[in-house]
Amino acid sequence: MSAGEKAKAKAEQVVGKTVRKAAHAVHKDALAAKGAALEARGRMRGAKERTKDSFKH
Question: CA 49, 23, 8: angle at the middle one, nearest 5?
Fold first, then answer.
């Protein structure tokens, strides 16, 4: 996995988790859902890159 893609995936996960938790704290369900979606997108991006790497070896 390229370092840039790995960093983007991790950043999306961290930002998504932070947004989700902050939105839950102030009872903003729509914003919490957006944060969860961002977090999931980061996880999927990381999984995609790991899959690509597994076929390279």
Answer: 20
